[in-house]
Design brief:
Layout lengths: L1 H49 L10 E13 L2 E7 L2 E8 L1 E2 L20 E10 L2 E14 L4 E8 L2 H4 L2 E2 L2 E3 L6 E24 L3 E14 L2 E6 L5 E4 L3 E14 L3 E18 L8 E20 L5
Antiparallel strand pairs: 1-5, 1-16, 2-3, 2-16, 3-7, 4-6, 5-6, 6-10, 7-9, 8-9, 10-11, 10-12, 11-14, 12-13, 14-15, 15-16
Length: 303
């Protein structure tokens, strides 16, 4: 009986030891699997943090842009005042003056000749950028037109050119009037961005916003045979709404197509070279389409 009891105890101890070894092995395997999973998760999170954020989206990003525009203008009333005259020309037509396509569009020494646009934007928060811009448009009064006249001119030679409340501008003797160096709209805007398409090396980003700024034209005006006024001058203010599509490729390079509409009011246009109080004022609505190339980059590392 004692022998049977001893054999039984020995067998139970052997079974218990085997079960203990199995449980320990299973536990160790489970711990190793958990550690492996945690390490894998950490590597994945680290890889995601190292990946650059979407272009034109994150706070701290910057973009620069250069392009060219075409513009259109509503008719406007232009009011002239000075020594011996105070009159208004009604519903004056004007248009832009694009430079013929050629090397001038790519030669940096000639870039101000074209109707160009420059932008620099900084994302003050995710998907919202503060944008500083220069819109170098050109405004040229149509010479071949007859316009309404209201007011008075003391000089009999030029007063005689007014017939039945109208004046013909075709011979350029009465007036030439343009902002061709140019109609410079220096503006600051806020733009909201939204990513529409995100592929490996291609992003399509839509933006919309508004801006406000001052007008700094170089107005070329020749009135009543006086020496032509041709100088830069802060003449008024402008405001606009805008929207753009931005095709970003290889994470950084950008093609931009933008449309905008706005209002310009210039109340202090210089019409003579001297310091006489001669000036003109006008206001009008404008539309603009522009396109060009840009570059976007991050100002901080995303860890």
């Amino acid at each position: 009986m004692k022998k049977i009891l001893v054999v039984g105890l020995m067998m139970s101890n052997f079974v218990f030891a085997q079960n203990k070894k199995t449980d320990t092995a299973n536990y160790n395997r489970s711990v190793e699997e958990d550690l492996s999973y945690v390490a894998s998760e950490k590597q994945q999170i680290k890889a995601e943090r190292k990946e650059k954020p979407l272009p034109l989206s994150k706070k701290g990003q910057i973009f620069v842009f250069y392009g060219w525009n075409r513009a259109a203008y509503s008719n406007s009333d232009i009011h002239f005042t000075g020594n011996g005259y105070d009159f208004q020309l009604n519903n004056v037509k004007a248009q832009d003056r694009p430079t013929k396509f050629g090397i001038v569009y790519f030669d940096p020494s000639w870039f101000t000749v074209t109707q160009y646009n420059f932008r620099i934007g900084y994302f003050i928060k995710d998907n919202l950028a503060l944008v500083l811009g220069i819109d170098h448009m050109k405004y040229v009064m149509d010479q071949n037109q007859t316009v309404g006249f209201k007011g008075h001119i003391s000089d009999p030679e030029y007063a005689a050119m007014v017939q039945n409340g109208q004046v013909n501008l075709a011979d350029e003797k009465f007036l030439t009037f343009e902002h061709t160096d140019g109609l410079n709209y220096e503006n600051l805007g806020l733009e909201k961005y939204k990513n529409l398409v995100h592929k490996k090396n291609i992003d399509l980003v839509w933006s919309y916003g508004a801006g406000i700024g001052f007008m700094f034209p170089k107005s070329n005006v020749k009135l009543f045979g006086n020496e032509r006024s041709d100088r830069f001058h802060v003449a008024g203010m402008g405001t606009d709404i805008r929207s753009s599509l931005n095709l970003v490729f290889w994470k950084n390079w950008m093609l931009r197509l933008e449309g905008k509409a706005g209002y310009i009011n210039m109340w202090d246009i210089k019409t003579t070279l001297n310091n006489k109080p001669d000036k003109a004022r006008q206001d009008f609505v404008f539309g603009q389409v522009l396109g060009g190339i840009g570059y976007t980059f991050n100002t901080k590392k995303y860890k």
